Amino acid sequence: MAAKDLKVGDKRKAASGSKGKSDGKVKKARLNNSKPPKKATKKEADDFEDFTDSDDGGVKLDTKADNKAAKKTEGSTDAKEFDRTGLTSRESHAKQKQLAQERRAAKPLADEVQRTKRIWEKLRRKSHVPKEERQKLVEELFGIITGRCKDFVLKHDAVRAVQTAIKYSTPEQRKQIANELEGSYAQLAESRYAKFLIGKLLVQNDDEIRDLIIPNFYGKVRKLINHAEASWILDDISRTVATKEHKAILLREWYGPEFTLREMTRDTKPTADLKEILGNEPSKRGPIMKSLLDMINSLIQKKMTGFTMLHDAMLQYFVNTQPGTEEFNEFLELIKGDESGDLLKNMAFTKSGARLSCMLFAYGSSKDRKQLLKTYKDTFVLMSGDPYAHVIILTAYDVIDDTKLVAKSIFPELLGDKEEEVVQNVVGAVNNPNARTTILYLFEGLSKSLFPASHAFDLEVLAEVHEIRKTTSKKDEDLRRKELVAALSPQLLSVIAAAPSELTATAFGCQFVTDALLSEAEDKTKALEAIAQSAAGDPKEEPGEDELSSRPHISRASFGGRMLKSLIQGGKFDKATSKVVQIEPPLEFSNVLYPVIKEYVMDWATGPSSFVVVGMMEAGDFGEVDALKKTLKKNKKSLEKAVTEMTAEQKAAKEAQEEKASTEKGGKKGKKKTEPLVGNAGSKLLLEKL
């Protein structure tokens, strides 16, 4: 995640419990059983806009100003009750107001704080302050705080002004503030107000400031991760802006106090891989595992289960235990012991947590897997669209032998209940890079079209799961898949019949249609007819300008032509045999499509989707092949013209090819031969078949 996305508690999976509450937004994926942070009143939600003299809520920095303030207020009558004898109510209130003003005036930096407040009140209304005036105000603000930032940052009515100064500062000014506060960031993180200033400094994506701030937390992780305020900013830093080395040093402190001290003098590159650490020092396995488990258990018991660092630590512990051992079983019971389900739901949305959840499914008994599915109830839709959580659904498909339980638990939630809801959900899911895998995985398997390079995490986890299930799952893999497809297909076919135009408008949608119709489902008549009707009309006709969603004809889209050709062939291409493997019973889609496009078949034969007509000529189940041949022979000149003439796109491609060839040879043309471009390749094949 980019550093610019850093916000305290942003996108966090805050668990319930007062000790684990977050100051940021709670991700909607969390959680039915979690208690969200108490909704702030308008006054509280204004992010420290109501300036009072209340306690700052943090740890006091040891500054000279604080020492002077302590001496100045010692023995004063600020806290004493004044004599109200003979005073009316109005006079009493006036006296109270006067004493409050005197107390404020007696505090250190009272005048400076008041000045920063006035400046901040102007700067916060950005649209009302001209740029030149804003620059002057920022300069004045820096003149006040420069050299004494530590005196301001823990005052809740002054830290906002410092944050505003950072917002409008230059890189040099930000570094100046960061250097002034160096050595005190761990204390600032414990303040309910000053911790936001750390986020303001880091969000600027300055590597020098990042490398200055993060080492301030070294040696203090074990303390700060249990602190109600500091834990969230520490975890956000580790999750978003920390480098690989930073993360390793911070996570190593979970392994015991000795790692806290060791990092201070360590010269080599640190690693957080516990397996490697235990391999180098096997004698220390007992203390390390105990320290790690104690830290994990402490946070779980406090309901502070939304931390990415916690999930990283849990994964390290789990992969270093042996299945079937007492250590392994106790850890499983610790995770299952969270009755609220917050822990497992939080884990689903982080990389380490999702991998650990998949391994729990793979190693678990049938009873454990049923409990896991129950825990994720009402969360599957959010999980399906998440970069990590969706792989948990795929793992459930792969390892749970009770396919009726899977179909009953997952499919109704992913697809919905009402017909309109099902159509909307499926159309949305098939066009989402993550959610589409939860539907098409049962048809495509581990195909590259479904899992491109960007889904390397999915492939890595699923390979691990497939290896584990060899000893933990009994049902045959193909049988499990067929049973799930049989349960899912009827609803998918009804969606195709209800919304063919929406699905065929995108490449992902066309892939979904192809997979669903080439599956082993029964009664595809309505779906096939709907797809055929989506190809109706004149391929050359332009969409009207007044249409809300004007789309080109399906024949003009390369993915639309490929989909129709695949359906005509009635099966998928097998690389091993270099043949199309037909499904049973055959689709016979040619007989459904030809009557729809018959009137414009020559436009198809000479257009971008000419291979659709080629497919009809080659289809063994096409009943009107003779009529099609007769039409093509009658319009042979049109085919010949399409072969010899290049389209505008082909001409542009040829020019680009020639230009590239000339530039690669220093502008000397003719040195490199360009590939000859012909006109319509499909039309050429049709001529050969005639």
UniProtKB/TrEMBL annotation:
Protein name, per record: Pumilio homology domain family member 6
GO terms for cellular component: nucleolus
Stretches with biased composition (Basic and acidic residues): 1-13, 57-110, 651-667
Ranges of residues in domain PUM-HD: 74-450
Disordered: region residues: 1-110, 534-553, 643-690
Protein's job: RNA-binding nucleolar protein required for pre-rRNA processing. Involved in production of 18S rRNA and assembly of small ribosomal subunit.
MF terms (GO), sorted A to Z: mRNA binding
Pfam families reported in the protein's UniProt record: CPL
Highest taxon in the source lineage: Eukaryota
InterPro entries: ARM-like (IPR011989), ARM-type_fold (IPR016024), CPL_dom (IPR012959), PUM-HD (IPR033133), PUM3 (IPR040059), Pumilio_RNA-bd_rpt (IPR001313)
Keyword Repeat applies: yes
Keywords associated with the record: Repeat, RNA-binding
Keyword Thylakoid in record: no
GO biological process, one term: regulation of translation
Ranges of compositional bias, category Acidic residues: 46-56
